[in-house]
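Let us practice reading a record.
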Amino acid sequence: MGLFGKPRVEITVALDEVPRVVETGLVPPEVLSAPPAAASQGEAPADSDGQADLLYELKTVKELVTQLNEKIGERDKLKGLPRSTQAMYKRLLRNNVDEKLALRLVRSVGEQLESENTRDQERCRELFIQGIENLIRKPRPIEFNKNKPRVVAMVGPTGVGKTTTIAKLAANFTLLEKKQVGLITIDTYRIAAVEQLKTYAEIIGIPLEVVFRPEGLMPALDKFRHKDLIFIDTAGRSPKNEPQISELAEFLKAARPDEIMLVLSTNTHTADLLDIYRRFNVVRIDKLVFTKLDESNTWGQILNTVHKTRTSLAYITNGQNVPDDIEVPDPFYLAKTILGEDVG
């Protein structure tokens, strides 16, 4: 009879009708994009079609207001600037240049045009190209040491083309510049990667050492002590896998390379590029290499990354052909492309 049982309370809860909640302005954003909920008995309420139409209209209005606010904000930012610079600003945004960086360029060019008392379109273009060139800065390709080999390590996430990039550089330095080059790989996770580098080494005619543990690096480097240049190929690492990055750091600590190049794919968003840089920078990144320029329609992310990280470009690649399709970047060429000009 419940004489010694715990007291119990029965609660009945009911929801307001959706239209009434909408009228009060209390509809959360997720409700606007969600379909009307079915009735508790599995049957749609009689006015479900009307509710769905109302929610859709509200969502559409919200999107239009957001777009309008963005246009007003952009207009305010560009207010008072020459039309020629405003057109260039839109070009930069279309090519994935960061908004703040694009505004900085626009204001700088606008001030220079004002000081020169000109609105000449060609002069505006020249100033934009100069501004982008200054942000990219002078590239820093590999330089050689005197009386000892230059040791260069390539690091980066999986799939960016580190091994192919090393093969291109090794072939160019060996065949065109007549340098003595040695290869070391610590990418022993993938048998195919070792075999690929072995094939390249045989074709180019240079020696290759395979190292499995950090303590094996110094003996391998000693074998190449009379070389001009030694490349160290590393395994592709997930930047979010901290144990893998720590293992890479142990190898590079033992190798003590003269420089470490981070290889990045141009087919990557700026936010991801910056995150990759931050995570790999535990090994002290000296230079950047951007690959797959031929596979990307925009290059603004290169400018964003170089500017944000304050790290110089060393090389860019624009294809898979070895030893071709790699070059020291030309800031003028990059600037024109980032500005959206067809450079052929």
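A brief commentary: The first strand starts at residue 150 and ends at 155.
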